[in-house]
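Complex record, four chains
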Amino acid sequence: MVNSDMGIKVDRNKVALLAGVSSATVSRVFNHPEKVNKDKRETVLKAAKELNYKPNINAAILARGINGKILLLDNNKLLKYDSSNSYYYSWLYVDLLNQIRDVLKGTVYELVISNLEDLKIQDSFDLRDFDGIICFDIDDIDDLSLVRESGIPYVFGHHVREIPLTNKLFTDNYYGGFLQARFLRETGHIKTIYITGMLNKLNAHKERYNGFSDIYSCKNHLLIEGRVGKDGGEESIRTVIDKIESKEYTAIAAVNDLTAIGIYFELMKRGISIPEDVSLIGYDNLPFTNLLPKRLSTIDIKIGQLYKQSAINLLSIIRNGTNEMPGNFKPSLIRGQTVSRNKEIL
Amino acid sequence: MVNSDMGIKVDRNKVALLAGVSSATVSRVFNHPEKVNKDKRETVLKAAKELNYKPNINAAILARGINGKILLLDNNKLLKYDSSNSYYYSWLYVDLLNQIRDVLKGTVYELVISNLEDLKIQDSFDLRDFDGIICFDIDDIDDLSLVRESGIPYVFGHHVREIPLTNKLFTDNYYGGFLQARFLRETGHIKTIYITGMLNKLNAHKERYNGFSDIYSCKNHLLIEGRVGKDGGEESIRTVIDKIESKEYTAIAAVNDLTAIGIYFELMKRGISIPEDVSLIGYDNLPFTNLLPKRLSTIDIKIGQLYKQSAINLLSIIRNGTNEMPGNFKPSLIRGQTVSRNKEIL
DNA sequence: TTGTAAGCGTTATCAA
DNA sequence: TTGATAACGCTTACAA
């Protein structure tokens, strides 16, 4: 007690001395407790407690020949106000961060955050300083090569085809689109409008649409390809405002929440009530949507859970060299208040 | 080249061998380059490059007797949907994170994130594993004692009085409230409504109000103390809706953006136009406010910059044992679109 | 089951 | 200005 309180360094040797064992035994008590006699183990633990002993992680790491660090590598698009839309996703980032930390909590690994920009331009750090890499939102094939060629175990959350499935964890966009459609159909909507970005530009958009159109055939939905985001949503909805006012279409699905928000406010401005006049469902479940006058119906991509699983997978790759976990992550429906039963058909 | 590409370990000794110097000289080249002969320095650097040598940070840290880690300790209120309001501040968290990382980039320190809950309940980690602690949004005096008693250098971003000024960095709430008021006065508003939480409950609220009422005397503003947040804003504004409709009061200031958003939507619902019928200004500059139909006028607390400065201060404390930097951080005005010139007096 | 001792890759002191 | 060399605190063969 006194020792530690006085700030005098207490290491394995001091504990060993007090417990009357060798320092190797102390080490074993902490790393392979099953390999040491129960009585001795307790004596050591007692001595350690008395001395307020705390293992030095860095020394352990050095002795083990590892780095003790997992890298969360992001594309640093977050927080760039100008590249606008991705900025708002930083909200989800904290969730993801916490989930990954949760997985790493019991391990020797510490989570370190960095981004591609620092890696490439400044080379202020080296991938070799890490035992594993979790890529967040990295979709450029060249960027990925950088990671793959480092030889460090990695996992990856997107859709580049060249990546082995083992290292990949992705949100099931098809299923998400399907959920949107199924919800609208269940609430009695016959004819719907689907608002998205240019489908040939982004695979995720295409997949979400495929899931949606699996339920709503071409005759039963109107597809609008345009810009995404708040402004895009406003623009797109204007082109079909007459078809909403005429009640020809009774529900709208958007490819993401930001676009849905543009639609939401544009309709509001024109005195069209949601969901009384038209139903609306988004995609992503940005926390923002919970602050709207009517809580937006949307799809929760559960990004925190997705990256939690990716951290688990990474650990498995580091330890076993491989990983058997699922790579496919299913989103879920948030019912919200912006979709209501279609009264036109009652 | 070959060596490193083949994954064979290359350390100081290999570099020393190739450069024809001792390993101590190699070490000096990297740590105290001024202490080594220029020619030799270049030879060493060349050899290091050729071998693709990378210093082992953990070994350095161990030898130096430091931990190589700075802790960002938060109160883990973020991400708790139920404790609602703080949840939305996670948006700002990413900003702060990036800024701190930016400061630490040139140092041996890595940023590690953790929270009080893990520290107290699980004791899954030990404050002694860190060289410095940045406390984020920790306002409980007992929690702070934990940090202070660890003896580790720390900085701290709030208003507990017992903390020495050196270790404290705070946002100037008085000035922020003053900015709100000055902006409203400049745009010609004579009588205003100030909506806040219970003033005796939270010092920050009190300070903001003091700044505001420094410009608007009691006769010129109506103070509403109530619940904060979206619901609170809705409630509070309802109690004075007649005074807004009658144009007796032409502008509203809210203690924070979440409250302002409640006010915003409640007014919208009642057909009161912002800023045509009444002006509105919030506080915090949550990114959210940029997505509203009219971009909310608000006060930017610049939390990223604040924590950047706090990281700089912490480094100064670690290195010099003390710190001379300013502890007071001034927010700035975001003009937005929800405050307009008061036409009543034109 | 336990102890001895050789690393792990640095830093830094002390002589030269 | 340089080179030996002793830490740094731990892990882990290997031997006992």
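Note: Chain B touches chain A through 48 residues (CB under 8 Å).
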